[in-house]
Amino acid sequence: MRSYVIMPRGLKVILLAATAVGVSVAAIAQLSAQEAAVKAEAEPSKLAADLIGTWQLVGRPDDAQEMPVNSFKFFTGKHWSVTYHDENGRVEYHHGGTYTIDGDQYAETIKYATEQTAALIGQTIKFKINVVGDKYTQIGVGNEYNEIWRRAK
Fold first, then answer.
1. Are 56 and 94 found together in one domain?
2. For the chain, what is the total number of helices (H) and then of strands (E)?
3. Residues linked to residue 97 through DSSP beta bridges, in sequence order
4. What are phi and psi of 84, to 5 degrees?
5. pLDDT in tens for each of the 153 residues of the chain?
6. Phi and psi dihedrals of 64, rounded to 5?
7. Strand-pair category, 124-132 with 135-141
8. How far apart are CA 95 and CA 50, in angstroms?
9. Residue span of the structural domain in which 36 resides
10. Residues 131 and 96 grouped into a single domain
11. Alpha-carbon torsion angle 135, 139, 143, 147, nearest 10
12. Is 72 in contact with 56 (CB distance < 8 Å)?
């Protein structure tokens, strides 16, 4: 046996409209939340944004002596590369790949390299990094690559 609720026609229209609005508001809220999450993923952190550019190797944190500028490191927001040349300008090695940043934790994966550093291909090397003005410092996490870089002008 079925039971029916009899309601005035105007009330039916109001309930249907309220239901439709409720569904629309919920759908819009869900889409807005998804859009905000995608936007947050797409926007780099301040550290990630500060890292983009060209850097010159100038020294090591444990060695106060400044090094000759023979090594350059490049960051694009997703890809990196490093090139070292001798005093005559001949490239001795070049390698690079992709990188990720999570807070101050940086990980670079080597995807390509010249013959001199080809053994690095496939490796992921981790660092704790910091950028202050035109100074970029990376401290190796489980590796000896502790370096200070200056933004190339």
1. yes
2. 2, 8
3. 80, 110
4. -120, 130
5. 555 556 566 545 454 444 444 545 555 566 566 665 555 456 779 999 999 999 999 998 877 677 777 999 999 999 999 999 999 999 999 999 999 999 999 999 999 999 999 999 999 999 999 999 999 999 999 999 999 999 998
6. -70, -15
7. antiparallel
8. 22
9. 1-43
10. yes
11. 30
12. yes
Can you name the residues that pair with 134 across neighbouring β-strands?
none
Q: What are phi and psi of 72, to 5 degrees?
A: -125, 140
- The residue type found at 35 is E
Distance CA 55, CA 67 (A): 13
66 and 118 part of one domain = yes
Going by C-alpha positions, the residue among 137, 144, 72, 101 that lies closest to residue 109 is 101
Token pair recorded at residue 47: 């550290």
Beta bridge partners of 109: 98, 124
Residues 101, 76: Cα–Cα separation, whole Å: 13
Q: At which residue do the structure tokens 């409720």 appear?
A: 22
Whole-prediction pTM: 0.70
Residues 6+ positions from 105 with CB-CB distance below 8 Å: 126, 127, 128, 129, 141
From CA 141, how far away is CA 143, in angstroms rounded? 5
